[in-house]
Amino acid sequence: MRTITASLVLAGLLVSAQAYAKETPRPKQTATVSNASLTELEAIWNMRAALNVAALQCQHDPMLALPARYNTFIRLHEAELKQVYDTLVRKRGGQAKFDRINTQVYNKYATVKEKDLFCTTAADVSVIAMNAAPYGLSSVASTVYRSLSRLIGGAEVASVSPAAGH
Fold first, then answer.
1. pLDDT digits 0-9 by tens, 62-89
2. Is the dihedral of CA 102, 103, 109, 112 positive or negative?
3. Higher local confidence (pLDDT), 59 or 28
4. Which of 50, 62, 60 is closest to 126 using CA atoms?
5. Model's pTM, two decimal places?
């Protein structure tokens, strides 16, 4: 019963967030992510990766609406995510290394043992992420990082350490 109630509340939040996104144009921002630390950028990208995997793997529960939430998140934060991506590719030593690390990140989220917990956590994160202020993903990602990290056994993901690229 608790899960159903929580899902209904989350579905209501989704409808609210989508209505806000469609009706309220966001102001153009000139902020950049160039001042963010590599750790902050990694947290943003890990959050995006977790939400992407959840959108693909959690479709069994339509109440979570994760594909729609993920798409809304991407649309609302497209410019910031593009800057994070470009910066990470550059700071990680190029596209090939970025792709290897990114594959590891996706694999960790795709193989989470507790799928139901992963899906409900991702649903909660998606609401927070969709409602983040423009260029405010760093604070959101740092807030949710611990929850997402626990799901993958506390392993560090998207690291720039030499071991992560092999």
1. 899 999 999 999 999 999 999 999 999 9
2. negative
3. 59
4. 50
5. 0.74
Query: pLDDT tens, 9-47?
Result: 444 444 444 544 444 444 444 455 656 687 899 999 999
Q: What is the pLDDT of residue 64?
A: 93
Q: How far apart are CA 128 and CA 33, in angstroms?
A: 19
| Tokens coding 151 | 């799901």
Amino acid letter for position 46: N
State how far the Cα of 90 lies from the Cα of 86, in Å rounded to an integer: 6
